[in-house]
Amino acid sequence: xxxxxxxxxxxxxxxxxxxxxxxxxxxxxxxxxxxxxxxxxxxxxxxxxxxxxxxxxxxxxxxxxxxxxxxxxxxxxxx
Length: 79
Hints:
Structural class: mainly alpha
């Protein structure tokens, strides 16, 4: 009975994925590789990684603050 299994013990299907499944598999593989590369870079250079995260946070806060100030200045309802 074990000889009748085409999938083997790894649980992978005998047929290669096609169409959307192949695209999803390739995309997931690419995302995993990129995440691994970013994690490795952050582990190798922790000061630069934390500086980038803080810089993005400051930039996002500044954009939010400016958009909030702009909407308050144009709205005269609260005065």
